Amino acid sequence: MNIVRACQTAGVLHTDQPELMAVSIWGQVHGIVSLALEGQVSHMVLDHHTVQDVVSFAMEQMILS
User: Domain locations in the chain?
Assistant: First the structure.
């Protein structure tokens, strides 16, 4: 959570509720990796993107522009 707070202070992440932000980030990354390991990510996605691309895309949704 300290990393989330540091990113919020630096203006990288939204400043609301760091505890919820940390759980949300962990949940998204864990979920994507779990799906990939279980072969549950569609080949339509993996034909064009890596799992790292999918994780990066998810993270970019939380980053302030």
Answer: 2-60
